[in-house]
Design brief:
The chain is of the alpha+beta class. Strand 1 and strand 2 form a beta hairpin. The N and C termini lie far apart (48 Å).
């Protein structure tokens, strides 16, 4: 069995995630899953309609994750990084940013950092498809 050493920062986000919530009338929804590990993620964004195109900002964000501590913590961090960013900036969030904020992840759990990013990108794409 792999040694899973979780950082204090990861445990903080796992035990007290700030963004576990459902938004009323979300602007975009993204859902992803990883069959290999069983993690499933649902992420919603609310976009501030001021501004144009990619310069519109994410004014609220929430997620629900069925998964391990790494998946939950990484989802919370993705939301934390994305909130207040423009759509263009949010699309550029990387796993390295998530890993840095979590102060690392066990090697076997690095894929969890990408799930939240993928769900965010799908939510933005959903919003863009709905709004031309």
């Amino acid at each position: 069995m792999a040694n899973l050493e979780y950082s204090k920062e990861l445990m903080k986000h796992f035990k007290n995630p700030k963004y576990v919530k459902t938004l009323k009338n979300p602007s975009g929804i993204g859902e992803v899953g990883n069959i290999r590990c069983g993690d499933i993620m649902h992420l919603e964004i609310k976009v501030d309609e001021k501004g144009k195109g990619q310069s519109k900002k994410i004014k609220d964000i929430g997620f629900k994750t069925f998964g391990c501590p790494s998946a939950i913590a990484a989802s919370d961090v993705v939301c934390d990084i994305a909130k207040g960013k423009t759509l263009k900036q949010a699309k550029k969030i990387t796993k390295d940013q998530v890993l840095k904020k979590l102060k690392g992840l066990p090697t076997a759990k690095i894929h969890c950092s990408v799930l939240g990013i993928d769900a965010l990108k799908k939510a933005i794409k959903d919003y863009e498809e709905k709004n031309g």
